[in-house]
Amino acid sequence: MSEHGGNVVETGLQLGIDPELLLDFSANINPLGLPERVRSLIVSHLDIIMHYPDVEYRHLHQALACANQCEYDQTIAGNGETELIYALVRTLAPRRAMLLVPGFAEYRRALQQQGCHIIDYALNEREGFQVDSALLDAIRTHRPDCLFIATPNNPTGLMPDAGLLDQLASLCEALHIALIVDEAFIDFLPQGSTLAPRLADSRYLYLLRSLTKFFAIPGLRLGYLLSGNTDTIRQLKRTREPWSVNAFSALVGQHLLSDEDYISRSHAYIARQRDYLWQAMTRFSSLAVWKPEANFIFFRCLRQDVNLKTALLGHHILIRHCENYPGLDSTWYRIAVRTEAENNRFIEALTHVLQDDGDGLFPDFLQSER
Q1: Which of 17, 155, 277, 325 is the most exposed place for a label (fewest CB within 10 A)?
Q2: Which residue in 326, 337, 207, 327 sits closest to 279, CA to CA?
Q3: Whole-number Cα distances in Å, 285 to 78, 128, 298
Q4: Contact status, residue 245 vs residue 57, Cβ threshold 8 Å
Q5: Which pLDDT value is given to residue 1?
Q6: CB atoms < 10 A from the CB of 355, how many?
Q7: Is residue 160 helix, strand or coil?
Q8: Could you give the C-alpha distances from 169 to 28, 73, 130, 215, 273, in angstroms and in order?
Q9: What is the pLDDT of residues 46-80, one digit of tens each?
Q10: Which is it for strands 320-321 and 332-336: parallel, antiparallel or unpaired?
Q11: Residue 96 gets which letter from DSSP?
């Protein structure tokens, strides 16, 4: 099983402590927590647990289509985005696929299960882990059947240039390459997706979305896929296991994307806390920190004598080690943006762990932010 963030139960067992005592910076979940609308819907509809969901999820698919200004037959909901990654790969059955590394582990696992040959396209520190036009040249050279790209990228939190994404979509359409764009964190960007308007005229573009991260419902497991290729969507619906989305997820999903108050408050709060956390972390001379566009921060510890994950667990803080991402080693980490109080606690713990950093002014900076 691939390592993911949010595994507080296993970590608590390893440390011999109650998992509730851990402050989890490893899972990229909206710090504002569960929308009140979700809580109210579940409490007021408890009786639906006694009935099977609509196997076609008609109301859910209609709500997703309406929110994304696309057609009903261009969307399919799933038990989290991950279910749809595997289902799409099984349906498309690519023989050659290109993956950007570092990247989300489940793309590779899904492709390997189908015996697909994988071409790695390495993003590197020298180029700031950013995608550029060289990717277009690599696609023309290798001619894969499909390409996975995350916007924003996980774990770097970086967003490719909108113009380059448009060129990428046009190239893949011309070469009949399935362009699978993971937009799991796109809801954290107020401007949203620049590729969504292309859906109506594309047969090779697939947009994967997650509702669990932005709306803080990872336990409910809900994601969806958008594509102008209605034949593929139809085949996915026809061959999927029945009732993969539970009744509560199907109900809640009908209302999430119309909760404009929660969405606007989240954008404002996360932007403020993300900027504070990023600025605070850049004050440490032993950290190289990438400026993020999503709700998490990617960074490197330049001190070889410090394992930050282990050291911060001593303060009951769990962060995401990135050494299991292809192309990264044990010096790379990722943390989520959390509440103001929790972010302050993280910076205090980090200050203690890196107290020999030589940055004597940092504690004064932290104090001034309170």
Answers
A1: 17
A2: 337
A3: 43, 18, 15
A4: yes
A5: 39
A6: 12
A7: coil
A8: 27, 21, 17, 28, 33
A9: 999 999 999 999 999 999 999 999 999 999 999 99
A10: antiparallel
A11: E
Neighbour count for residue 101 (Cβ, 10 Å) = 16
Type of residue at 365: F
Q: Which two tokens stand for residue 302?
A: 């330049």
Return the H-helix or E-strand segment holding 72.
none
Calculate the CA dihedral of residues 22, 25, 31, 34 and round it to 10 degrees. -60
Residue 99, classed as helix, strand or coil, is: strand
Helices (H), strands (E): how many in the chain? 13, 13
Instruction: Return d(Cα 297, Cα 263) in angstroms, integer.
Output: 21
Show the tokens assigned to 205: 């573009």
Q: In what order do the strands lie in the sheet with 96-101?
A: 75-78, 223-227, 205-210, 178-182, 146-150, 96-101, 117-122
Percent with pLDDT over 70 in the chain: 91
Rounded Cα–Cα distance for residues 182 and 293 (Å): 15
332-336 β-sheet, strand order: 287-289, 296-301, 332-336, 320-321
Q: Is the peptide bond before 102 cis (omega within 30 degrees of 0)?
A: yes
The secondary structure of residue 79, as a DSSP letter, is S
Q: Is the pLDDT of residue 18 over 70?
A: no
Sign of the dihedral defined by the CA atoms of residues 79, 81, 82, 86, in that order: positive
Q: CA-CA distances (angstroms) from residue 361 to 286, 347, 352, 365? A: 14, 14, 14, 7
Percent with pLDDT over 90 in the chain: 87
Question: What is the C-alpha R_g of the chain?
Answer: 21
* DSSP letter (8 states) at residue 292: P
Residue 5 C-alpha from the chain's centroid: 11
CB atoms within 10 A of CB 96: 15
Helix 230-239 vs helix 80-92: crossing angle, to nearest 10: 110
Which run of H or E residues covers position 318? strand 317-318
SS3 content of the chain, % helix, strand, coil (to 5): 45, 15, 40
Check pLDDT > 90 for residue 356: no
Q: How do residues 74-98 score in pLDDT, each as one tens digit?
A: 999 999 999 999 999 999 999 999 9
